[in-house]
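Continuing the series of single-chain predictions for the mutant panel. This is the parent chain; the variants come on the following pages.
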Amino acid sequence: MSRRFRSCLLVLSLCSMSTAHATTVQNRTPGDSVQTITVGGVNRTYRLHIPTGYDDSTPVPLVFVLHGAGGSGKSMQNLTGFSTKADAEKFIVVYPNGTGTPQMWATGMSPHPYSTADDVGFIRAVLNKLEQDLKIDHKRVFCCGFSMGAMMTYRLGAEMTDRFAAIGVASGTIGTKQPDGTVYEIQNPAHGLPLIAFHGKQDQTGRL
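Parent structure:
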């Protein structure tokens, strides 16, 4: 799966309000940190990786990487190797954490959601915070995800079309079909958005 994500990253690199409260990013030195932000009264966390050589003088790309059902930002960091790639290519990576035990995303693709958290508001608030506190290239902000994180990425791409340059998904659907034939899917985006997707009938990952 990490190879798929590296492929996502290579392609994305070529494409070159809920109430929220947050303090500024406390540690702007290269490396990893765990950041907290409050969205709609709920404390949310995410891992932030600032690449080696970052110095606030040149805008850099930003990539969100979303874990699958039951995963975490840290597990996604370890699984994908994005932070190593970020150090080599000079971009910032964010690994958001879902909510619940196990951690899930509010994909909006089921009549019985695994999560009712305001995840769109969460990602939007994190993006606003990082664009304010760090030197981000606004035209090169990307999002990618795996499994349920891929489904959430589809939703973010549709509802935050104005904020992302492109999205990448691995092993995630754009909607779900219920036993009665009802189909739940993301809303139409405001305008077209570049996408790279890896999915197929032989995929054993499942729907989450």
